[in-house]
Amino acid sequence: MAGGGMPTDAPGVSGGYLTGKRLIFPLSLVISLFFLWGFSYGLLDVLNKHFQTVLGVSRLESTGLQVMYFGGGYLCFSPIAAEVLKRKGYKVTILMGLALYSLGAIMFWPTAHFSTPQNQKAAFGGFLVCTFVIACGLATLETSANSYAVVIGHPATASARLQFCQSWNGVASFIGPLIASKAFFSGANANSLTNVQYVYLAVACAGVAVAVMFFFAKLPEVEESAVRSGSIVADNSEELGLDQYGHVLVQKPLRKEYNMMAGFVAQFCYVGAQVTIATFFINYSTEAAHYTSEEGARLLSYGLLTFTIGRFVAAALALVLESNFIIMIFAAINIALCAYISNAHGHGGVACIIVVFFFMAPMYPTLFTLGTANLGSNTRRGAGILVMGVSGGAVFPPIQGAIADAASTRISYLVPMVGFVVVLAYGATHWVKRGFHVLRVKGEDVPAEAVVGGEVVDAKEKRSSVVEVEDMKKI
C-alpha cells in the first residue's frame, strides 16, 4: 500500500478488486457507516428549526450548524483524513472517524443539560462545537467509506455499487427526522432540549458499537497500485492500465487531474444545493403552505424517504444507463422544479421540493465516482478532495438564509437552482466526452485506444510493447 504498510490483520485484495460473495462482508460493514452518518445528517435539519424556537436564533444564525458541519468538519478535516487514509489504510481511518463521531455525540449531553434561558447564545455556541467534532468524524468516514466502496469491486459497476451503499444513508436520513419530529416538537419537548440529550446519547452508543465491530473485523485492504483491468509496468516506472472503457491510463500528478478538480467544484455546488433544499424545508412548509413545525418535520422525513427511493432507483438505472447521462437529466429536472418552487404558493411548492429530493438522490455518489475515476495512486488523496466538496453545504445555507430573511424563504430557493446548473454542466461535459452514450458502455464495446505521448495507441499494442521492454530488462 503506497504511503504505509499493510495492516497485519487486513487481508489484501488480489487481482485489484473483489467479486461475488467476497464483496458481501466488506460492503455490509461499509453500509453500517453510511447508515450512521445518514441518521446524523437527518437530525441536523430538524435541529436547525428546533434551535430557532428554543434558543431564539434567527434563520441566518441557525445556519451556523451547517457552516460548522460542512465547512468546519468537511473542509478543514477531509485533507487530514485523506492523509491518514494514504498512510494507514482504510481500517485505521474508519476507526478514527468513528471515535470522533461518538465523541461529538456524547458532547451534546452536557451542552444540552446545562443550557438555560439565560445562556442561550452560549449554549448554541456549544452545540456548534459538538457539531464540528461530529463533522470531523463524518468527514473521515466519508473519505474512507466512499473510496472503499468504489475501489473494492469491479470499476464498471462502481457507480451502481456506491449508489447502493449510499441508499442506506438515505434510509437513515429518513428515520432521523421521523424520530426527531416526535422527540423535539411534540408536547413539552417543543420548547425543551431534554430529548436532544437522549437522542445523541443513543447516537454515541451506536457509533461505539460499530467501532467495536470494525476493530475485530478483518477488513480487506485495496492497494492503490492495483489497476482495475490489470497493471502494466512501463520502463519509466509509471503504472498503466485500462479503464472501464478500455482506454490506456497514464499516471499523472494530482495537480494535473483536471477532471477531479472539476468534480470537486460540481460536488461543492451540489452539496450546497442539497443542504439548502433540506435546511429550509420546514421554514418553507410553515410559511408557504401554513403547516405546523411538527407537520413540516414529518413532511421532511417523507422527502428524505423519497430521496432514499431515488438512491435505490438510481442504483438500478446505473446498471443500464450511463451515470453521466443520468445525472445530466436529473439536474435539468431539478433546475425546472426549483424555478417553480421559488414562485409557488401552497401545497404544490412543498410537493415539488419532495420531488426534488428524488432527482438529486444519485448526484453525490455519481459525482464522487466520476471525479475519482482512474486516479491510480492518487485515489485516496483524490477522495479527500472530493469529500472536501461537501463544504458547499457551509456556503450555500447562509446565502439562502440571508435571502430568506430579507425577502422570503420561497424566493431563496433560487439558490439551490444555481447549484444544479453547475452539476448539469459537469454531467453534460462527461456525457459529450464519452460519446453521447445513453446505455452503459462496457469495456469490450469501446475501441481500446488512448492518446499517449501525443499519439493514438492501441491498448493491445501498448501492452505488448511494454512486455517486450520488461523481457529485455530481464535479459
Automatic annotation (TrEMBL):
Subcellular location: Cell inner membrane
Membrane topology: Multi-pass membrane protein
Predominant location category: membrane
One Pfam family from the record: MFS_1
Residue ranges of the TM segments: 23-44, 92-110, 122-141, 197-217, 261-282, 302-320, 325-342, 348-370, 382-399, 411-432
Gene Ontology molecular function, alphabetical: transmembrane transporter activity
Keyword set, alphabetical order: Cell membrane, Membrane, Transmembrane, Transmembrane helix
Full protein name: L-fucose:H+ symporter permease-like protein
